[in-house]
C-alpha cells in the first residue's frame, strides 16, 4: 500500500512540475544586438512557426522592426525581457475569417514593450482581431496618448491580466483616445482590418472580454467602443459580457472607463479616476451609455457595479441612454464610493434603467 501511494505521489509531483515549467521548456531566442530589428524579429517568428512557443530571456533587450504576428495555438513568454519596437509590438495574424475564427488559443506572458521613439506611436501597439480564447498577461506596454496600448476588435473569450498599459509623450487637450480599446469592426473603426476584406468589417462586436488586475492610464483609460459613422449603420450593435475587475484606471482628458453599447457588464473592485473637470460627459469617471436600439435580451442583462472607488469631474458615474426609446434592463449598484468635482449630487446619476438596485453606495464632493 505504501509503495502504491509513493508511486502515485511521484507521478503527481512529476505532472505538477511539468505543468509549472512548460514556459521554461519553450525554445529560447537570444537577442542578436541588431538595432534595426530585422534579426530578432526573424528569429522570434521562425521559432514560433517551428515550435509554437518561444521564450525571450529575462534581463535582455530585443529590437523588432515590425509587429510580431501570432497565430493560433502559439505562446510567447517574455517575462523580464524588454522589447523595443520600431513600429508596434504584436498582433494576431492577418484576419481572413469573421465570427471569431481567424485565430484561437493564444497566450502572451510578460515583457516590457515600448516604442523606439520617446513620444511613442500614435497607432496601436497590441492588436487582436476576429479571434477567440486569447490571454495577455504580465505585459507592460506603452503607446502615445493618441494611440492604443491594446486594441481588441471583434474578439471573444479574451483575458487581459496583470498588465500595465500607460502612455508616452504628452496628452493633447482634445484627445479622448483610450489605452485599452474594446472595439467594433467597421470600416471607420478598424481600417487596417478592412483592408483584408469587407466581410471583416460588418459591425462585429466583442464578447466575454475581461480586464483584471491591471494599471491603465491615458486620455481615456478603457473604452468599449461604438460608432455612428455611415449614417449610424452600426449603432444597434452591442458588445456582450464585459468584465472590468480589480484595476486602477485613470483618465486625463476623457473618462477613466467608458462602456458604450454594452449588454451585460461587471465593474467590480476598481479605482476609477478621471482628472478632467470640465462640464461634459468626457469628465465622468465611469460612463455607461447606449447609442442605439436595445437588442433582444437587454431586459434581462445586468450591469453590476460593485465595490469601486469612482471619481470624476462632471460626474463620478453617469448611466445614460441617447436612444430615449431604449433602456438598460437592470443595474445592480452596491458598495461604491463615488466622488464628483461638480458636487455630491453628481457623484452618480442614473437614467433610462428599468430596474435599479441601489444599496450602500456613498456620495461625496471631490475637492
In short:
The chain has 5 helices and 33 strands. With 367 residues, it is mainly β. The N and C termini lie far apart (70 Å).
Architecture overview:
This protein is mainly β and 367 residues long. The chain is built from 5 helices and 33 strands. The chain has a 12-stranded parallel beta sheet with strand order 1-2-5-8-11-14-17-20-23-26-29-32. The longest helix is centred in the first third of the chain and has 19 residues, at 2-20. It starts with a helix and ends with a strand. The model is unreliable at 1-6 and 8-22 (pLDDT under 50).
Radius of gyration over all CA atoms, rounded: 22 Å
Largest sheet: 12 strands, parallel
Taking strands numbered 1, 2, ... along the chain, how are they ordered across the largest sheet? Answer: 1-2-5-8-11-14-17-20-23-26-29-32
Could you tell me the number of beta strands?
A: 33
Note the beta-strand portion. Answer: 35-45%
User: How much helical structure, as a percent, in the residues?
Assistant: 10-25%
> In DSSP terms, counting alpha (H) and pi (I) runs of 4 or more, how many helices?
5
- Could you tell me how far the N terminus lies from the C terminus, measured between alpha carbons in angstroms? 70 Å
**Overall mean pLDDT score?**
94
What is the 3D shape?
globular
Class based on secondary structure composition and strand pairing: mainly beta
List segments where confidence is low: pLDDT < 50 over at least 5 consecutive residues: 1-6, 8-22
Amino acid at each position: 500500500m505504501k509503495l502504491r501511494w509513493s508511486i502515485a505521489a511521484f507521478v503527481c509531483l512529476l505532472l505538477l512540475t511539468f505543468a509549472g515549467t512548460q514556459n521554461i521548456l519553450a525554445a529560447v531566442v537570444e537577442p542578436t544586438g541588431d538595432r534595426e530589428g530585422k534579426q530578432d524579429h526573424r528569429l522570434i517568428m521562425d521559432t514560433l512557426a517551428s515550435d509554437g512557443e518561444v521564450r525571450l530571456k529575462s534581463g535582455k533587450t530585443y529590437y523588432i522592426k515590425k509587429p510580431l504576428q501570432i497565430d493560433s495555438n502559439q505562446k510567447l513568454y517574455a517575462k523580464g525581457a524588454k522589447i523595443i519596437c520600431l513600429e508596434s509590438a504584436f498582433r494576431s495574424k492577418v484576419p481572413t475569417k469573421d465570427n471569431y475564427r481567424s485565430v484561437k488559443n493564444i497566450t502572451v506572458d510578460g515583457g516590457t514593450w515600448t516604442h523606439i521613439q520617446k513620444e511613442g506611436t500614435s497607432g496601436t501597439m497590441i492588436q487582436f482581431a476576429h479571434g477567440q480564447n486569447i490571454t495577455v498577461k504580465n505585459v507592460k506596454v506603452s503607446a502615445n496618448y493618441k494611440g492604443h496600448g491594446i486594441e481588441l476588435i471583434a474578439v471573444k473569450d479574451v483575458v487581459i491580466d496583470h498588465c500595465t498599459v500607460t502612455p508616452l509623450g504628452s496628452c493633447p487637450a482634445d484627445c479622448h483616445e483610450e489605452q485599452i480599446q474594446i472595439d467594433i469592426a467597421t470600416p471607420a473603426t478598424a481600417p487596417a482590418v478592412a483592408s483584408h476584406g469587407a466581410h471583416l468589417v460588418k459591425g462585429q462586436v466583442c464578447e466575454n472580454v475581461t480586464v483584471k488586475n491591471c494599471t491603465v492610464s491615458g486620455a481615456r483609460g478603457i473604452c468599449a467602443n461604438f460608432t455612428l459613422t455611415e449614417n449610424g449603420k452600426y449603432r444597434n450593435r452591442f458588445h456582450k459580457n464585459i468584465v472590468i475587475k480589480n484595476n486602477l484606471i485613470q483618465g486625463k482628458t476623457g473618462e477613466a472607463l467608458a462602456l458604450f453599447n454594452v449588454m451585460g457588464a461587471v465593474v467590480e473592485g476598481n479605482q476609477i479616476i478621471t482628472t478632467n473637470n470640465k462640464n461634459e460627459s468626457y469628465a465622468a469617471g465611469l460612463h455607461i451609455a447606449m447609442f442605439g436600439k436595445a437588442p433582444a435580451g437587454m431586459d434581462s442583462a445586468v450591469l453590476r457595479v460593485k465595490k469601486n472607488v469612482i471619481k470624476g469631474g462632471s460626474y463620478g458615474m453617469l448611466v445614460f441612454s441617447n436612444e430615449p426609446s431604449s433602456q438598460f434592463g437592470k443595474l445592480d449598484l452596491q458598495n461604491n464610493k463615488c466622488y464628483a468635482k461638480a458636487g455630491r449630487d453628481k457623484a452618480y446619476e442614473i437614467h433610462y434603467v428599468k430596474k435599479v438596485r441601489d444599496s450602500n453606495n456613498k456620495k461625496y464632493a471631490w475637492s
